[in-house]
Design brief:
Blueprint lengths: L3 H18 L5 H10 L7 H9 L29 H15 L3 H10 L2 H7 L3 H6 L10 H9 L1 H4 L8 H14 L3 H27 L8
Helix pairs in contact: 1-4, 5-11, 8-10, 8-11
Length: 211
Amino acid sequence: MISTRDQADLGWHFGPGSATYERSTCGPMLDRASTFYVRHVPDPEIAAARRARKPHEPDPGDITARPTAEVRDAGRAGQGNEDRCVQHGKMSRRLSRLPPEGRAVFAIYFGDAGSKWAQGPGLAGRIGRLGSILHLTEAGQRLARRDEKKTRGAAVPVSAEARLETAVVLQDLQPQPARESLLSLALRQAQELFDRACVQWNDTANVPDKR
């Protein structure tokens, strides 16, 4: 298991931290484009004046001034302070030392999917964040395939994650021994996946950064 402090830091990293520090770098450019964009809407009075003007008179619709001052990106509310930025960098470096499987488990478990399960009603809420990585297990895939035929031909393909959520809801409302057996096995395998990722995480604590 990992410390409660590390759990909190990982929850922040894959939640608000990712939303704040991993945003698109195109944002400021789009802001500037929006600032200087001029939407030309036909004006009947200007059109009439343009038709009536004499050749030597300036066009009443001409633009005679354009913004030239530099526009600085004022930043965005909630970007956090320097300490948070440093923390995000440290967490990213430490996560980079994990094997791909461990990083994937943590990203899902501590990310939006894990939060959704933790806040879910009934059995889903009791299962908690562990439910978000059920689809990574062999038993979870088998459980997802049980009802796969029912969703074939759907307008939008149904993912294994969605089918597992449905299976948990059905088990809560209409318990079935076969489904319960598979779900129990999938939860044990998911716990093993998470525990293995935790061991890998703890092993990175004293590993120096690669230069």
